[in-house]
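Sample pair:
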Amino acid sequence: MGVELRRFIERWLIPKTLLQNPLVRRILKNSSYLLGATGTSAGISMLQGILTARLLGVAGFGVLGAVIMFTSVINRFASFRMSELVVRYVGQYTEAGDPRRAAAVFKAAALAEMLASIVAFVLIVLFSPLAARYLAKDPSLAVWFAVYGLIVLANLIAESSTGLLQIFDRFRHMAGLNMLQSVVTLLLIFIVFLAQGGLPGVLLAYVGGKVIGAGGITGIAIGEASRQWGRGWWRAPLSVLRPQGRELAHFAVSTNISSTLSLINKDSEILWISLFRGPVETGYYKLALSLANMVQMPVSPLPTATYPELARQVSHSNWDGVRSILRQGTQLAGAYSLLATLGLVVLGRPLIGLLYTPEFLPSYPALVILLVGLLVANTFYWHRAALLALGYPGFPTRVNLYLALGKVLGILLLVPRFGYLMNAALLSASYVVGVSVSALKVRSIIRQRSQEAGI
Protein backbone atom coordinates (compact mmCIF):
# COMPACT_ATOMS: atom_id res chain seq x y z
CA MET A 1 0.00 0.00 0.00
CA GLY A 2 2.90 2.41 0.72
CA VAL A 3 4.05 2.31 -2.94
CA GLU A 4 0.58 3.04 -4.34
CA LEU A 5 0.02 5.84 -1.86
CA ARG A 6 3.39 7.38 -2.69
CA ARG A 7 2.57 7.33 -6.42
CA PHE A 8 -0.78 9.00 -5.82
CA ILE A 9 0.80 11.71 -3.65
CA GLU A 10 3.62 12.33 -6.11
CA ARG A 11 1.27 12.57 -9.09
CA TRP A 12 -1.59 14.62 -7.69
CA LEU A 13 -0.64 16.34 -4.42
CA ILE A 14 3.03 17.38 -4.61
CA PRO A 15 4.39 20.08 -6.91
CA LYS A 16 6.92 18.81 -9.44
CA THR A 17 9.55 21.18 -8.03
CA LEU A 18 9.56 19.26 -4.76
CA LEU A 19 10.07 15.94 -6.50
CA GLN A 20 13.12 17.29 -8.33
CA ASN A 21 14.97 17.39 -5.01
CA PRO A 22 16.53 13.94 -4.38
CA LEU A 23 16.63 14.55 -0.61
CA VAL A 24 12.91 15.27 -0.50
CA ARG A 25 12.20 12.29 -2.74
CA ARG A 26 14.09 10.01 -0.35
CA ILE A 27 12.22 11.39 2.66
CA LEU A 28 8.88 10.98 0.89
CA LYS A 29 9.78 7.44 -0.12
CA ASN A 30 10.65 6.44 3.44
CA SER A 31 7.75 8.33 5.00
CA SER A 32 5.31 6.92 2.44
CA TYR A 33 5.83 3.42 3.81
CA LEU A 34 4.99 4.71 7.27
CA LEU A 35 2.24 6.91 5.87
CA GLY A 36 0.59 3.98 4.13
CA ALA A 37 0.56 2.09 7.42
CA THR A 38 -0.34 5.22 9.37
CA GLY A 39 -3.22 6.05 7.05
CA THR A 40 -4.57 2.54 7.38
CA SER A 41 -3.92 2.63 11.11
CA ALA A 42 -5.78 5.94 11.34
CA GLY A 43 -8.88 4.40 9.82
CA ILE A 44 -8.53 1.33 12.01
CA SER A 45 -7.94 3.51 15.08
CA MET A 46 -11.09 5.44 14.30
CA LEU A 47 -13.07 2.21 14.09
CA GLN A 48 -11.54 1.12 17.39
CA GLY A 49 -12.57 4.42 18.94
CA ILE A 50 -16.13 4.15 17.63
CA LEU A 51 -16.52 0.62 18.97
CA THR A 52 -15.01 1.38 22.37
CA ALA A 53 -16.94 4.67 22.75
CA ARG A 54 -20.24 2.98 21.97
CA LEU A 55 -19.39 0.04 24.23
CA LEU A 56 -18.13 1.97 27.25
CA GLY A 57 -20.02 5.27 27.11
CA VAL A 58 -18.49 8.68 27.93
CA ALA A 59 -17.34 7.86 31.48
CA GLY A 60 -15.95 4.43 30.58
CA PHE A 61 -14.20 5.93 27.57
CA GLY A 62 -12.60 8.44 29.91
CA VAL A 63 -11.43 5.71 32.29
CA LEU A 64 -9.89 3.85 29.35
CA GLY A 65 -7.98 7.00 28.42
CA ALA A 66 -6.73 7.38 31.99
CA VAL A 67 -5.44 3.79 32.12
CA ILE A 68 -3.62 4.09 28.78
CA MET A 69 -2.14 7.50 29.53
CA PHE A 70 -1.01 6.51 33.04
CA THR A 71 1.17 3.73 31.61
CA SER A 72 2.43 5.95 28.79
CA VAL A 73 3.44 8.75 31.14
CA ILE A 74 5.38 6.52 33.53
CA ASN A 75 7.05 4.69 30.66
CA ARG A 76 8.16 7.93 29.03
CA PHE A 77 9.25 9.31 32.39
CA ALA A 78 11.71 6.44 32.72
CA SER A 79 12.62 6.42 29.03
CA PHE A 80 15.76 7.94 27.52
CA ARG A 81 14.25 8.05 24.00
CA MET A 82 16.91 5.68 22.78
CA SER A 83 15.64 5.77 19.20
CA GLU A 84 17.01 9.29 18.87
CA LEU A 85 20.37 8.39 20.40
CA VAL A 86 20.66 5.37 18.10
CA VAL A 87 19.81 7.42 15.00
CA ARG A 88 22.33 10.10 15.93
CA TYR A 89 25.32 7.97 16.93
CA VAL A 90 24.84 4.66 15.14
CA GLY A 91 24.26 6.76 12.04
CA GLN A 92 27.36 8.84 12.73
CA TYR A 93 29.65 5.83 13.19
CA THR A 94 28.11 4.03 10.22
CA GLU A 95 28.77 7.05 7.99
CA ALA A 96 32.33 7.17 9.37
CA GLY A 97 32.94 3.48 8.53
CA ASP A 98 33.26 2.41 12.19
CA PRO A 99 30.91 -0.60 12.60
CA ARG A 100 32.47 -1.62 15.92
CA ARG A 101 31.45 1.59 17.63
CA ALA A 102 28.09 1.58 15.85
CA ALA A 103 27.32 -1.88 17.26
CA ALA A 104 28.52 -0.82 20.71
CA VAL A 105 26.15 2.17 20.70
CA PHE A 106 23.19 -0.02 19.82
CA LYS A 107 24.16 -2.52 22.52
CA ALA A 108 24.53 0.22 25.15
CA ALA A 109 21.22 1.78 24.16
CA ALA A 110 19.41 -1.56 24.35
CA LEU A 111 20.83 -2.35 27.79
CA ALA A 112 19.91 1.07 29.15
CA GLU A 113 16.41 0.77 27.70
CA MET A 114 15.93 -2.67 29.26
CA LEU A 115 16.74 -1.28 32.68
CA ALA A 116 14.46 1.72 32.17
CA SER A 117 11.57 -0.50 31.05
CA ILE A 118 11.86 -2.71 34.12
CA VAL A 119 11.94 0.35 36.39
CA ALA A 120 8.88 1.76 34.60
CA PHE A 121 6.90 -1.46 35.07
CA VAL A 122 7.72 -1.58 38.78
CA LEU A 123 6.55 2.03 39.16
CA ILE A 124 3.31 1.24 37.30
CA VAL A 125 2.55 -1.66 39.66
CA LEU A 126 3.39 0.41 42.75
CA PHE A 127 1.27 3.41 41.76
CA SER A 128 -1.68 1.52 40.25
CA PRO A 129 -3.80 1.72 43.45
CA LEU A 130 -3.37 5.50 43.60
CA ALA A 131 -4.14 5.84 39.89
CA ALA A 132 -7.33 3.82 40.23
CA ARG A 133 -8.48 5.87 43.22
CA TYR A 134 -7.70 9.38 41.98
CA LEU A 135 -7.83 9.08 38.18
CA ALA A 136 -10.48 6.44 37.51
CA LYS A 137 -12.33 7.23 40.77
CA ASP A 138 -12.68 3.46 41.28
CA PRO A 139 -10.12 1.62 43.50
CA SER A 140 -11.29 -1.77 42.19
CA LEU A 141 -9.64 -0.99 38.81
CA ALA A 142 -6.10 -1.00 40.24
CA VAL A 143 -5.35 -4.45 38.86
CA TRP A 144 -6.22 -3.31 35.32
CA PHE A 145 -3.83 -0.39 35.53
CA ALA A 146 -1.11 -2.94 36.36
CA VAL A 147 -2.22 -5.40 33.66
CA TYR A 148 -2.06 -2.75 30.95
CA GLY A 149 1.45 -1.93 32.21
CA LEU A 150 2.62 -5.25 30.75
CA ILE A 151 3.04 -3.48 27.42
CA VAL A 152 6.11 -1.77 28.91
CA LEU A 153 7.83 -5.14 29.28
CA ALA A 154 6.80 -6.07 25.75
CA ASN A 155 8.54 -2.89 24.56
CA LEU A 156 11.74 -3.82 26.38
CA ILE A 157 14.08 -2.50 23.65
CA ALA A 158 11.53 -1.24 21.13
CA GLU A 159 12.89 2.33 21.06
CA SER A 160 16.46 1.24 20.30
CA SER A 161 15.13 -1.18 17.70
CA THR A 162 13.09 1.54 16.02
CA GLY A 163 16.14 3.79 15.80
CA LEU A 164 18.22 1.04 14.20
CA LEU A 165 15.57 0.34 11.58
CA GLN A 166 15.40 4.05 10.76
CA ILE A 167 19.16 4.22 10.23
CA PHE A 168 19.15 1.38 7.72
CA ASP A 169 15.97 2.54 5.94
CA ARG A 170 13.80 -0.38 6.99
CA PHE A 171 10.69 1.79 6.97
CA ARG A 172 8.68 -0.76 5.00
CA HIS A 173 9.17 -3.33 7.77
CA MET A 174 8.10 -0.83 10.41
CA ALA A 175 5.04 0.09 8.37
CA GLY A 176 4.02 -3.53 7.96
CA LEU A 177 4.26 -4.19 11.67
CA ASN A 178 2.26 -1.07 12.49
CA MET A 179 -0.53 -2.26 10.21
CA LEU A 180 -0.42 -5.78 11.63
CA GLN A 181 -0.66 -4.43 15.17
CA SER A 182 -3.61 -2.21 14.26
CA VAL A 183 -5.50 -4.99 12.48
CA VAL A 184 -5.01 -7.46 15.34
CA THR A 185 -6.13 -4.88 17.91
CA LEU A 186 -9.24 -4.02 15.89
CA LEU A 187 -10.22 -7.68 15.52
CA LEU A 188 -9.81 -8.25 19.26
CA ILE A 189 -11.85 -5.14 20.10
CA PHE A 190 -14.57 -6.22 17.68
CA ILE A 191 -14.78 -9.57 19.47
CA VAL A 192 -15.01 -7.75 22.80
CA PHE A 193 -17.71 -5.46 21.38
CA LEU A 194 -19.81 -8.40 20.21
CA ALA A 195 -19.37 -10.13 23.56
CA GLN A 196 -20.06 -6.87 25.50
CA GLY A 197 -16.81 -7.50 27.34
CA GLY A 198 -16.44 -4.08 28.94
CA LEU A 199 -13.30 -2.25 30.00
CA PRO A 200 -11.19 -5.33 30.92
CA GLY A 201 -11.76 -6.88 27.51
CA VAL A 202 -10.84 -3.67 25.70
CA LEU A 203 -7.62 -3.31 27.71
CA LEU A 204 -6.61 -6.91 26.98
CA ALA A 205 -7.24 -6.29 23.29
CA TYR A 206 -4.90 -3.31 23.32
CA VAL A 207 -2.25 -5.29 25.22
CA GLY A 208 -2.41 -8.10 22.67
CA GLY A 209 -1.89 -5.75 19.73
CA LYS A 210 0.96 -3.88 21.43
CA VAL A 211 2.80 -7.12 22.28
CA ILE A 212 2.69 -8.24 18.64
CA GLY A 213 3.95 -4.87 17.36
CA ALA A 214 6.76 -4.50 19.89
CA GLY A 215 7.93 -8.09 19.54
CA GLY A 216 8.04 -7.79 15.76
CA ILE A 217 10.05 -4.55 15.81
CA THR A 218 12.56 -6.02 18.24
CA GLY A 219 12.98 -9.24 16.26
CA ILE A 220 13.54 -7.45 12.95
CA ALA A 221 16.02 -5.03 14.53
CA ILE A 222 18.11 -7.82 16.04
CA GLY A 223 18.15 -9.53 12.66
CA GLU A 224 19.22 -6.28 10.99
CA ALA A 225 22.02 -5.83 13.54
CA SER A 226 23.32 -9.30 12.72
CA ARG A 227 23.15 -8.56 9.00
CA GLN A 228 25.04 -5.30 9.34
CA TRP A 229 27.66 -6.28 11.93
CA GLY A 230 27.68 -10.09 12.05
CA ARG A 231 26.08 -12.50 14.48
CA GLY A 232 28.50 -11.61 17.22
CA TRP A 233 27.64 -7.89 17.18
CA TRP A 234 26.39 -8.07 20.76
CA ARG A 235 29.94 -8.88 21.90
CA ALA A 236 31.11 -5.39 20.87
CA PRO A 237 32.86 -4.00 23.98
CA LEU A 238 31.28 -0.95 25.54
CA SER A 239 34.78 0.24 26.41
CA VAL A 240 35.23 1.55 22.85
CA LEU A 241 32.68 4.23 23.73
CA ARG A 242 34.60 5.51 26.75
CA PRO A 243 35.98 8.61 24.97
CA GLN A 244 32.43 9.55 23.92
CA GLY A 245 30.83 8.45 27.19
CA ARG A 246 30.15 11.93 28.51
CA GLU A 247 28.69 13.07 25.18
CA LEU A 248 26.44 10.02 24.91
CA ALA A 249 25.24 10.41 28.50
CA HIS A 250 24.53 14.10 27.99
CA PHE A 251 22.50 13.38 24.86
CA ALA A 252 20.48 10.63 26.58
CA VAL A 253 19.81 12.68 29.71
CA SER A 254 18.86 15.76 27.69
CA THR A 255 16.35 13.84 25.60
CA ASN A 256 14.96 12.20 28.75
CA ILE A 257 14.48 15.54 30.47
CA SER A 258 12.96 16.99 27.32
CA SER A 259 10.61 14.02 27.07
CA THR A 260 9.62 14.35 30.72
CA LEU A 261 8.84 18.04 30.31
CA SER A 262 6.93 17.24 27.13
CA LEU A 263 4.76 14.92 29.20
CA ILE A 264 3.68 17.90 31.27
CA ASN A 265 3.25 20.20 28.29
CA LYS A 266 1.51 17.92 25.80
CA ASP A 267 1.11 14.30 26.77
CA SER A 268 -0.48 14.19 30.23
CA GLU A 269 -3.68 16.04 29.39
CA ILE A 270 -6.01 13.16 30.10
CA LEU A 271 -4.49 12.60 33.54
CA TRP A 272 -4.93 16.23 34.59
CA ILE A 273 -8.58 16.21 33.54
CA SER A 274 -9.16 12.84 35.20
CA LEU A 275 -7.68 14.18 38.42
CA PHE A 276 -9.51 17.51 38.53
CA ARG A 277 -12.75 16.91 36.62
CA GLY A 278 -13.52 13.17 36.48
CA PRO A 279 -14.15 10.48 33.84
CA VAL A 280 -16.97 12.20 31.92
CA GLU A 281 -14.97 15.28 30.89
CA THR A 282 -12.01 12.98 30.32
CA GLY A 283 -14.14 11.06 27.83
CA TYR A 284 -15.03 14.27 25.97
CA TYR A 285 -11.41 15.35 25.86
CA LYS A 286 -10.09 11.94 24.83
CA LEU A 287 -12.38 11.89 21.81
CA ALA A 288 -11.45 15.48 20.84
CA LEU A 289 -7.77 14.61 21.12
CA SER A 290 -8.11 11.44 19.05
CA LEU A 291 -9.98 13.28 16.28
CA ALA A 292 -7.44 16.11 16.27
CA ASN A 293 -4.67 13.55 15.98
CA MET A 294 -6.30 12.28 12.80
CA VAL A 295 -5.14 15.53 11.21
CA GLN A 296 -1.66 15.02 12.62
CA MET A 297 -1.40 11.37 11.62
CA PRO A 298 -0.34 11.79 7.97
CA VAL A 299 2.39 14.20 9.09
CA SER A 300 3.57 12.09 12.02
CA PRO A 301 5.85 9.81 9.92
CA LEU A 302 7.75 12.79 8.50
CA PRO A 303 9.97 13.51 11.56
CA THR A 304 10.98 9.83 11.66
CA ALA A 305 11.96 9.88 8.00
CA THR A 306 13.44 13.41 8.08
CA TYR A 307 15.71 13.06 11.12
CA PRO A 308 18.18 10.55 9.61
CA GLU A 309 18.35 12.60 6.40
CA LEU A 310 18.97 15.83 8.30
CA ALA A 311 21.66 14.10 10.37
CA ARG A 312 23.42 12.99 7.16
CA GLN A 313 23.33 16.47 5.63
CA VAL A 314 24.58 18.10 8.85
CA SER A 315 27.44 15.59 9.13
CA HIS A 316 28.56 16.67 5.64
CA SER A 317 27.93 20.39 6.39
CA ASN A 318 25.55 20.54 3.43
CA TRP A 319 23.57 23.59 4.60
CA ASP A 320 21.82 24.08 1.28
CA GLY A 321 20.50 20.53 1.59
CA VAL A 322 19.34 21.15 5.15
CA ARG A 323 17.52 24.34 4.15
CA SER A 324 15.93 22.61 1.18
CA ILE A 325 14.58 19.77 3.33
CA LEU A 326 13.11 22.15 5.90
CA ARG A 327 11.64 24.63 3.45
CA GLN A 328 9.97 22.11 1.18
CA GLY A 329 8.84 19.95 4.09
CA THR A 330 7.15 23.01 5.61
CA GLN A 331 5.33 23.77 2.37
CA LEU A 332 4.06 20.22 2.01
CA ALA A 333 2.99 19.71 5.63
CA GLY A 334 1.50 23.19 5.97
CA ALA A 335 -0.68 22.94 2.86
CA TYR A 336 -2.07 19.56 3.88
CA SER A 337 -2.64 20.61 7.51
CA LEU A 338 -4.59 23.73 6.60
CA LEU A 339 -6.96 21.83 4.31
CA ALA A 340 -7.45 19.00 6.81
CA THR A 341 -8.06 21.42 9.67
CA LEU A 342 -10.73 23.33 7.75
CA GLY A 343 -12.40 20.08 6.75
CA LEU A 344 -12.59 18.83 10.32
CA VAL A 345 -13.89 22.15 11.61
CA VAL A 346 -16.75 21.98 9.11
CA LEU A 347 -17.54 18.27 9.45
CA GLY A 348 -16.52 17.59 13.04
CA ARG A 349 -19.86 18.13 14.76
CA PRO A 350 -22.00 15.92 12.47
CA LEU A 351 -19.21 13.31 12.44
CA ILE A 352 -19.22 13.05 16.23
CA GLY A 353 -23.00 12.89 16.48
CA LEU A 354 -23.35 10.24 13.78
CA LEU A 355 -20.45 7.93 14.61
CA TYR A 356 -19.96 8.30 18.36
CA THR A 357 -23.57 9.18 19.35
CA PRO A 358 -24.83 12.64 20.41
CA GLU A 359 -23.66 11.88 23.95
CA PHE A 360 -20.15 12.87 22.79
CA LEU A 361 -21.06 16.21 21.11
CA PRO A 362 -19.46 18.32 23.90
CA SER A 363 -16.13 17.10 22.46
CA TYR A 364 -16.48 19.40 19.43
CA PRO A 365 -15.46 22.76 21.01
CA ALA A 366 -12.31 21.15 22.44
CA LEU A 367 -11.54 19.69 19.00
CA VAL A 368 -11.64 23.13 17.35
CA ILE A 369 -9.35 24.62 20.01
CA LEU A 370 -6.83 21.79 19.66
CA LEU A 371 -6.72 22.11 15.87
CA VAL A 372 -5.28 25.63 16.12
CA GLY A 373 -2.15 24.41 17.91
CA LEU A 374 -1.80 21.28 15.82
CA LEU A 375 -1.86 23.34 12.63
CA VAL A 376 1.33 25.11 13.76
CA ALA A 377 2.93 21.91 15.09
CA ASN A 378 2.24 20.06 11.83
CA THR A 379 3.56 22.84 9.62
CA PHE A 380 6.90 22.95 11.44
CA TYR A 381 6.96 19.22 12.21
CA TRP A 382 10.76 19.14 11.88
CA HIS A 383 11.60 21.56 14.70
CA ARG A 384 12.82 19.00 17.24
CA ALA A 385 14.45 16.64 14.73
CA ALA A 386 16.43 19.55 13.27
CA LEU A 387 17.70 20.66 16.69
CA LEU A 388 18.85 17.12 17.50
CA ALA A 389 20.58 16.76 14.13
CA LEU A 390 22.30 20.12 14.65
CA GLY A 391 23.63 19.01 18.04
CA TYR A 392 21.30 21.05 20.26
CA PRO A 393 19.46 18.39 22.33
CA GLY A 394 19.34 20.76 25.30
CA PHE A 395 17.42 23.56 23.58
CA PRO A 396 14.08 21.70 23.40
CA THR A 397 14.61 20.84 27.05
CA ARG A 398 14.90 24.49 28.05
CA VAL A 399 11.90 25.46 25.96
CA ASN A 400 9.82 22.66 27.44
CA LEU A 401 10.93 23.64 30.95
CA TYR A 402 9.57 27.18 30.62
CA LEU A 403 6.42 25.93 28.94
CA ALA A 404 5.93 23.30 31.64
CA LEU A 405 6.20 25.84 34.43
CA GLY A 406 3.67 28.13 32.78
CA LYS A 407 1.32 25.34 31.82
CA VAL A 408 1.30 23.63 35.21
CA LEU A 409 0.48 26.96 36.82
CA GLY A 410 -2.33 27.44 34.32
CA ILE A 411 -3.65 23.92 34.91
CA LEU A 412 -3.66 24.28 38.67
CA LEU A 413 -5.39 27.66 38.59
CA LEU A 414 -7.79 27.27 35.68
CA VAL A 415 -8.61 23.64 34.84
CA PRO A 416 -10.35 22.80 38.16
CA ARG A 417 -12.70 25.73 37.49
CA PHE A 418 -13.09 25.81 33.70
CA GLY A 419 -12.52 22.16 32.85
CA TYR A 420 -11.49 20.38 29.69
CA LEU A 421 -11.96 23.36 27.35
CA MET A 422 -9.38 25.38 29.27
CA ASN A 423 -7.05 22.39 29.18
CA ALA A 424 -7.43 22.30 25.39
CA ALA A 425 -6.62 26.01 25.18
CA LEU A 426 -3.47 25.59 27.29
CA LEU A 427 -2.26 22.69 25.15
CA SER A 428 -2.91 24.56 21.92
CA ALA A 429 -1.03 27.61 23.20
CA SER A 430 1.95 25.49 24.25
CA TYR A 431 2.15 24.03 20.73
CA VAL A 432 2.12 27.47 19.13
CA VAL A 433 4.74 28.99 21.45
CA GLY A 434 7.08 25.99 21.77
CA VAL A 435 7.16 25.07 18.08
CA SER A 436 7.60 28.69 16.96
CA VAL A 437 10.53 29.31 19.30
CA SER A 438 12.27 26.07 18.26
CA ALA A 439 11.76 26.73 14.54
CA LEU A 440 13.25 30.23 14.87
CA LYS A 441 16.24 28.75 16.74
CA VAL A 442 16.84 26.25 13.92
CA ARG A 443 16.77 29.07 11.39
CA SER A 444 19.31 31.05 13.44
CA ILE A 445 21.72 28.11 13.80
CA ILE A 446 21.65 27.29 10.09
CA ARG A 447 22.25 30.93 9.14
CA GLN A 448 25.22 31.14 11.53
CA ARG A 449 26.84 27.92 10.31
CA SER A 450 26.30 28.87 6.67
CA GLN A 451 28.09 32.16 7.28
CA GLU A 452 30.96 30.36 9.02
CA ALA A 453 31.27 28.04 6.01
CA GLY A 454 31.21 31.03 3.65
CA ILE A 455 27.95 29.95 1.98
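The two ends are 41 Å apart (CA to CA).
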